[in-house]
Amino acid sequence: SRFINLACAQMGPIARDDDRSTVVRRQIELLREAKSRGAEFVVFPELAFTTFFPRWVLDDPAEIDSFFEPEMPGPETRPLFEAASDLGIGFYIGYAELAQEDGRTRRFNTAIIVDARGRIVGKYRKVHLPGHAGPVEGRTSQHLEKRYFEPGNLGFPVWRTMGGVVGMCICNDRRWPETYRVMALQGAELVCVGYNTPDDHTGVFDFDQLTGFHHQLSLQAGAYQNATWIAAAAKAGCEEGSNMIGLSMIVAPSGQIVAMASTTGDELISAKCDFDMGTLYKRTIFDFARHREPSQYGLIVER
Ligand code: CDT
């Protein structure tokens, strides 16, 4: 067995005018609780340092930039890195990344893995950007990730860290089977995911009433079909008038939920997870080399 004591640090709402330092103090409090429970690795939400700004139509470039991080860690986020390394805890966290790349300014919805010594070991940029590039008429709430971010350009890598093979995705990515499969084909044993999921995100009540179910369904199917652990952390609660689901959870390669949040506020959940549970599934029902038939899957990359 190869055990890791894993935690998800669900965060309650962040107000539009909350500063980074206030938010980081909350995150450090969650890290301390994680330490008291013996956790070695903590998963924080998507865009974890600010409110979920893609709900608004913003035009002022300075205001838009105020939600982005030109460096990670920066002056206000460094205390999180220091606290985690003092506690000997690794973490995953999401943030809005302002990058200078290919001779221009680029914006991505990004997540990183930081090891227990405070070093960034991996970066992922969200591939599946939901919503629209401009406001949709008649909708009471907007989801404008396509306005503020480019699709990620780093693929779905995995990293050997924390005693296992670890990959990342962000929020909407968790609904797409390709996300998990690309990482599973590289041997992923743990997939980390942070999310902000409003309970009115499709605008169709028949679908929206199933928001929690579809979240669980995606994670449980993703874990089972790819023989991997999944640790998913929400930003939850009523944030600037938008109700976002909680249900942060840790899912085993069996598809079973082994820990789940019961509130929509700051809440730590944790579980002792055996990376070798995934190995067992990979040697039996999901032995990819023996059972998959890639020659029959061509359409998936052609369309
Ligand atoms: N942040 C994010 O990706 N949220 C989406 C909901 C919005 S879709 C318009 C999700 O898939 O949870």
From TrEMBL:
Entry-linked PROSITE patterns: CN_HYDROLASE (PS50263)
UniProt keywords, alphabetically: Hydrolase
Domain named CN hydrolase: residues: 4-275
Record-linked Pfam families: CN_hydrolase
SUPFAM superfamilies in the cross-refs: Carbon-nitrogen hydrolase
CDD domains tied to this protein: DCase (cd07569)
Keyword 4Fe-4S found: no
Keyword Hydrolase (UniProt): yes
Protein name per its UniProtKB record: N-carbamoyl-D-amino-acid hydrolase
